Amino acid sequence: MKKPFVIAIAGCSGSGKSTFSQMLMEEFKDYKVELLPTDKYFNRPLPKMISPLSNLEYDDYNCPESLNFEKYLEDVKALTQREDLDIVILEGLTVLYFKELREMEDLKIYMDLDPEIRMYRRIVRNMKAGRGTMEEIADFYLHSAKYSETKYFIPTKLQADIVLNGHNYEGTGKKMVVSFVKEQMK
What we know:
By secondary structure, the chain is of the alpha/beta class.
């Protein structure tokens, strides 16, 4: 039975995961590809966290428990059993965190980027989407997201097969990934 090639794209918020995933979708347009972002699988209600900086309580989008892991894993397993698919792209904070996912992934990519640039991207993205003022978005990042990312997801970089510069992934990094995956498709 032919199984699809599974690519995992992880990294912290604002590192370029979604943008790189969309670039790969375009590069692999001659293949049957499915993209499964973890952002569609947040638990409701979200877990809470107490900021170590302010002692304020925040919704925690940036911890493993924020993901409805059972449902995500079920959907990943279903996609990896489809013989009509060539490639499955898993994208999100947690795709390198869980061992069960890593065992199904053929290529593990971590998007790395300085926290200052990631915070800037997050502010721009969230303000465009009407998700708060610059101060609110920056405070949430500094008091909640940054802490959880450092605790849970920056260490997953060690699980990656390749680490790409989240500021400059359109050149050599993208070419290497595309070339490698196309070679696997032969």
